[in-house]
Specification:
The protein is an all-beta fold and 174 residues long. It is built from no helices and 12 strands. The strands form 3 sheets. It has an 8-stranded mixed sheet with strand order 1-3-6-5-4-7-8-2, with no helix packed on it. A two-stranded antiparallel ribbon has the order 9-10. Strands 11-12 form a two-stranded antiparallel sheet. β7 and β8 form a beta hairpin. It is rod-shaped and about 120 Å long. It starts with 17 loop residues before the first strand and ends in a 7-residue tail after the last strand.
Length: 174
């Protein structure tokens, strides 16, 4: 009978993955409804298993976004900013194949409404001639990436006096 003995050693991995080059940059500002990149680079002494980001909305709702490998050490995904103004905090989580987790990297961005509403299909058409003492329609289509609150029409008479009229909404609420 022969006896064979084999010796081997195992090394315990206690190192957390490194997370760096966070996107978006801290203090960035975007408009509501923008589609933005959420990304980070992650490395590990053995191997990165997965990486995700928790996005905390201004109203404290938390959304988990899985970041997918892109090229090299970069992981990313897209995020559509909802119609909620304020600061969005992002915490990145990187897990390696030994279950070590780095959850120390954070950034934030602000969602704002800096786009002007779009106004089109004005009635009456500019420079049109109307019959005196008749009722005319005054209207416009108005859209916005956030919300349309109030729409006014400024009517200027031939004698240069003016009247501001609040228009009523008909149709969609967007």
């Amino acid at each position: 009978n022969a006896t064979e003995t084999t010796f081997f050693s195992t090394e315990t991995d206690n190192e957390n993955p490194l997370v760096f080059e966070l996107v978006p940059q801290q203090t960035s500002a975007f408009n509501t409804s923008d589609l933005i990149e959420i990304a980070a680079n992650a490395t590990d002494n053995i191997a990165v298993d997965y990486i995700y980001a928790n996005i905390t909305y201004p109203n404290t709702t938390i959304e988990k976004i899985i970041l997918n490998p892109v090229t090299g050490d970069k992981y990313n995904n897209s995020f559509a900013i909802p119609r909620l103004l304020g600061q969005y905090n992002i915490t990145y989580y990187a897990n390696d194949t030994s279950s070590n987790v780095n959850s120390t990297e954070t950034t934030y961005f602000n969602a704002e409404d800096s786009r002007l509403p779009e106004v089109f299909d004005l009635v009456p058409i500019a420079a049109s001639v109307e019959i005196p003492l008749t009722t005319i329609e005054i209207s416009a289509n108005v859209t916005d990436n956030y919300f349309v609150d109030i729409v006014y029409a400024n009517i200027t008479y031939p004698n240069t006096t003016s009247l501001i009229v609040a228009l009523s909404q008909i149709g969609s609420t967007d």
